[in-house]
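Hi everyone, sorry if this is the wrong subforum. Our group has a chain we'd like a structural model of before ordering constructs, and none of us has done structure prediction before. Sequence below.
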Amino acid sequence: MMRTAEDGTAETGGSSASGAPGGASASGASGGANGAAGPAGPSGRSGFTDEVRDVVGAAVGAITRAGTITAANVADAAEGAARALTRRVVTTALDAPRPLRDRHELARALAERPSTPVLASATSAAFMARTVSRFRALSFLARKTPMWIVAGLVPALVVSVTRGADELGMISSHLAHRAREAGVEPDPERLRRAAVQVAAGVPVDPDAEPRHGGLVVLWLKRAGRAALPFTSGIRTKDPEGLAAAAAEVDPQILAAP
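Answer:
Right subforum, don't worry. Here is the predicted structure as tokens:
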């Protein structure tokens, strides 16, 4: 059912989106020992969940229209939804930053494993069977793809996107603390661009608008690996390297021009 495209990304007959019923989040990702409530905080959880669902739905729509998973299709389709999600995350980080003031605190937080349930469980399968009819793309997928793939990949994608937003929240909190300690009040848009660039592993230039869809491709690849048997689930890749990249950002460049 899965094959590989020329650009190295996995191809499949479809993929999917999901959201927890009601106002519940499918993520379970949290700030762990740092005591943070999560990327959007309690008051913004419902809207945050909707935006995660929008990102996943955009990626799924691109996959089902093309019939394959290609980086370009997913990145283009998810660009707007991913930008909206990152704006929410960064706004929350500015209003209530997590206590991640230095590189070591950030690395420890990124290294913590999200408190998410087992993805490919019977409970996940039952949950997906109930929610699949809520999305046209998922309905198509359910008809064309075995339920074990739906039950594994779909929750993994939701959790991976949520974890990605959590990572952005940690990076943004770290950058906001460092800027304020340097006497700089960070501009929300410049902070967002810098955080996305750090997470994507590209040079930091807050004057340049980054491609948010590229992050969704990374999150999708992570979900694909996590959905396979005998894997360790959703975790941050190279937390030390990510923290080091964030620590190298000059806080002065985050000020409004």
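For your construct planning: Residues 1-43, 116-138 have pLDDT under 50 and may be disordered. The first helix runs from residue 45 to 66.
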